[in-house]
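User: What would this chain look like folded?
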Amino acid sequence: MSTDRRAFLMAAAAALAPTAAPAADKYAASPWRKLTDADWKKRLSPEAYDVLRREGTERPGSSPLLNEHRKGTFACAGCGLPLFKSDWKFESGTGWPSFYTAIPGALGTKTDRLLVVPRTEYHCAQCLGHQGHVFDDGPKPTGLRYCNDGVALKFVPA
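Assistant: Here's the prediction, encoded as structure tokens.
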């Protein structure tokens, strides 16, 4: 079989293969998504606004949450959606709060191509506020490192 014919058949098979329907966005109608930029500026500190709404990054080592070790939950600073449990936090040495897993359904992702190497950016599934980036150099059991801007989180003690 020629290379052109094989490529054509593979492309046709891929086009005809059943695909899973995209998952429903359970937060699509969230009132948090209807806030205007001006609303967010009123609700958030300038630093939190820069990170959550403009995909900025706080200075490493600047978050008081680096030293937060009590039992509780880390929630989105924009809307309060719980994102991480304190048991999942670990010391990554990066200067940002880090977690090895997230609460199921709490985060959305997209590819960030701002730097030369594409990275996976994650955001709060409810308000779409930028949280950080996830890397595959974390500890067991997941091997993931959710590297979060501390200003994008608030800690809720248990």
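DSSP finds three helices and nine strands in the chain. If you want, I can go into more detail on any region.
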